[in-house]
Amino acid sequence: MSDNFQKKTSSILVNLIIGLIVIAFVVSGLTTFQGTTPDSVAKVGSYPVKLFEFENEVQRQSQFMSNFINGGKPLTSGQMKQFNVQQNALQNLINSKLILTFADEIGATASQDEIKNQIKSMKFFETNGQFDINKYKGLLAYNRITPEQFEEDTENQIKVQKAQALLASVPVSETYAKEVARIKSEGLSADIMTISKDSLRKTVDVSKKEISEYLANETNAKRVENLFADRKAALDTPEQVKASHILIEVKDGDDKKAFEKIQSIAKGLTVKNFVANVNKFSEEPGAKDRKGSLGWFGRGRMVPEFEKVAFEMKPGQISAPVKTQFGYHLILVEDKKAAKPATLAEHQTDLAKELIQKEKDISALLEKVKTEVASALEKGNKKQLMALEKEYAVNHEEKVAITRLDSANSIQSLSDENLEALFANGVQTNKIYTFDSASKVVVVKTAQMDKKEVKADGEALSRVLSRVLQQNAIKEQKEKVSVKINGNISFQ
After folding, report:
1. Which residues have C-beta within 8 Å of that of residue 303, sequence separation ≥ 6?
2. Distances from the Cα of 181 to the Cαs of 187, 400, 427, 456, in angstroms?
3. Alpha-carbon distance 133 to 120, whole Å?
């Protein structure tokens, strides 16, 4: 089934500018001091920072960090704390609310027509290219959001967009353009190698004898048991179903017509001709390419009505018509996997190895890898660099253009302090810099920037100016607007 059918549809909306339809999840390290969860975590002027906004932003930032340093694996609670994920998430949201107060100051408004048109333009509320009021209400209700709440947040987003558009529309003078072009011309091209300390630790060899001796110690064995208990839910293999389906949408509110059509298809439907009927009748976009297949899915992936039927069926069975907010479905269950709880015996060796690796002193190994990386960069030895990337999970960024205008927001692997250090003694090329932090070591080799990259681009300069003006607007609003952080979250 396409993503717009699955319940995870709501997670797609998380990444869009509205950021409202979200799937509830538990934030690692987030705790409340009260028995019930309050509605907001902070207040900026008259605007609350809602709890679900905070959870969404924490998830977004932790996902980014996990992709960068953990190869996509979830951050541990220690890493969440180390990288200040929750604090940064809250600050981002406070800044966005400050821009909203700035929008109010300059008189930015959103008309009812603008709000309505923006909502109607959202693809996930469409059926056959047209806004579907039933799908709109259904998705909101499913995620416990009222239309009034959604429309209010849409109004605020439009106001912020108008404020940002105003800042972006400030004309760039010729003098300013030349000055920025001069600064950009004094830039560097950099090869950046990032050594994640966590990733490096995982490359440390641990012998079977070490693991055996470690587990023989009662205290260590208990540590492994506790770690297994913490992760058991993630290690369990859930019950899964492999299925295909045929979808007939309800068009123009004509439920009867859709139901009659799905009943007609069901009459002659068999396992053997299921794919042929998918190709002929299914109204789901892309159904023919996938032959109606949804692949394997666990509980919580599909909308409740679909999930209930699919998990009750046996392999080889075809369902009666199933009604969901997306229309009518005929479901073919192709295969099933029973749930398989994880056992300590299956995982204790890997968990013990992980704990042993965490206790090992990697300072000598880190120094060795730093030296080898710096040497390979200095010599321009691409073969050696590739070998280091593979052996120690080192991340390599090539020919990164860096100027004095850049910040850690644009060059993710370097901090603002690192960037300042690159230009501390002017523009120096063919130089190796090493920056060590709690979580990583970054080795940088500088080179002369390609002159082709230096352009007095009016549009690019406008973006730079807009960013500066927006930062100034936030700074000024902080001085004028009350910002209160509620005492209902603990950064652990």
Report:
1. 5, 6, 7, 142, 324, 325, 326
2. 10, 18, 15, 5
3. 9
With both helix axes pointing from N to C terminus, report the angle between 218-235 and 208-216 in degrees, rounded to the nearest 10.
Answer: 110
pLDDT digits (tens, 9 = 90+) for 138-168: 888 776 778 888 888 889 889 888 887 777 6
Phi, psi (degrees; rounded to nearest 5) at 44: -115, 105
* Interatomic CA distance for residues 103 and 190, integer angstroms: 38
The CA distance from 446 to 450, in Å, is 12
Q: What token pair was written down for 38?
A: 């309050």
What residues does 130 pair with on adjacent strands? 127
Q: What is the CA radius of gyration of the chain?
A: 27
What gap in Å lies between CA 312 and CA 240, rounded to an integer?
A: 11
- Structure token digits, residue 179: 């000055």
Give per-residue burial for 453-490: e unless 16+ CB within 10 Å, then b: ebebeeeebbebbbbeebeebbeebeeebeeeebebbe
- What's residue 441's pLDDT? 94
What tokens appear for 475 in the block?
């700074």
What kind of architecture, by CATH, is found in domain 9-172+481-491? Answer: Orthogonal Bundle (1.10)
Tokens of 274: 């299921």
Question: Cα–Cα–Cα angle for 83, 88, 92, nearest 5°?
Answer: 155
CATH architecture of 240-337: Roll (3.10)
- Residue 11, number of CB atoms within 10 A of its CB: 16
Per-state percent for the chain, helix, strand, coil, to nearest 5: 50, 15, 30
Question: Residue 464: pLDDT band by 50, 70, 90 thresholds?
Answer: low
Domain ranges of the chain: 9-172+481-491, 188-204+361-452, 240-337
Question: Which residues share a beta bridge with 293?
Answer: 244
Q: Which helix (H) or strand (E) holds 365?
A: helix 363-379
Instruction: Say whether 240-337 and 9-172+481-491 share the same fold.
Output: no
